[in-house]
Amino acid sequence: MKRLADTRRTAAENQKKMLADNVYALAADPTKPHANPTPLQEVPRFDFTPLDQAETKLKASAKAYDDALAANGASLSKADQMKLQSLMQSIGQTLLLDKGLPFRDWYKNSIYAPGRFTGYGAKTLPGVREAIEEERWADATQYIGLTAGTLNAYSARLDQATAILKR
Predict the structure, then answer these.
(1) What is the pLDDT of residues 22-52, one digit of tens each?
(2) How confident is the model over 50-65, as pLDDT tens digits?
(3) Architecture of domain 47-165 in CATH?
(4) What is the pLDDT averaged over residues 60-81?
(5) What is the pTM of this model?
(6) How many whole angstroms separate alpha carbon 56 and alpha carbon 87?
(7) For the stretch 4-20, what's the b/e string if a residue is b when 16 or more beta carbons lie within 10 angstroms of its beta carbon?
């Protein structure tokens, strides 16, 4: 997401400079009609800190879970196995957004969804990615926080499962 925002920001800055320098008119074929392109919107700097922190937390939670499972998974009591299974069966639901994605609230997954304009082609972090691609800056900021929240919920569920494994 950071690279996408940076690429779009650089393209807008480059185009703005080329428009100011009259590059498009100078490069145009004088025998054909010419019009400058519509200026691209300036891309703001987004605060990706919530997503960065959620990613760091998720990595730590996943490692702790994997380590606990490797160390204690085979020796769990039946009761703890059932508790663990109950937790893990619904862990994917922690990645769902109550409000869904913009323009298609029936898609709830914050991590992947079919793209709005790509048919079945999947988009990762669709709330953030599509907002940046479609120049909906307020939505990008909002979905950075919402997506980080779902990742934190996923991490919390892994931490609960790790606690069961460490008993």
Answers:
(1) 999 999 999 999 999 999 999 999 999 999 9
(2) 999 999 999 999 999 9
(3) Up-down Bundle (1.20)
(4) 96
(5) 0.88
(6) 22
(7) ebeebbeebeebeeebe
Q: How far apart are CA 115 and CA 67, in angstroms?
A: 35
Residue with tokens 């950075």: 144
- Furthest CA-CA distance within the chain: 83
What would the pLDDT profile of 85-110 be if each residue is shown by its tens digit? Answer: 999 999 999 999 999 999 999 999 99
Instruction: Give the tokens for residue 141.
Output: 């900021």
145: pLDDT strictly greater than 80? yes
Give the residues across from 113 on adjacent strands. 123
Q: What does the block give as tokens for 104? A: 């298609």
- Per the CB < 8 A criterion, the answer to whether 18 and 24 are in contact is yes
String of DSSP letters for the chain: -HHHHHHHHHHHHHHHHHHHTTHHHHHS-TTS---PPPPPPPPPPP--HHHHHHHHHHHHHHHHHHHHHHHHGGG--HHHHHHHHHHHHTGGGGGB-TT-BTTBTT--BSSEEE-SSSTT-EEESHHHHHHHHTT-HHHHHHHHHHHHHHHHHHHHHHHHHHHHHT-
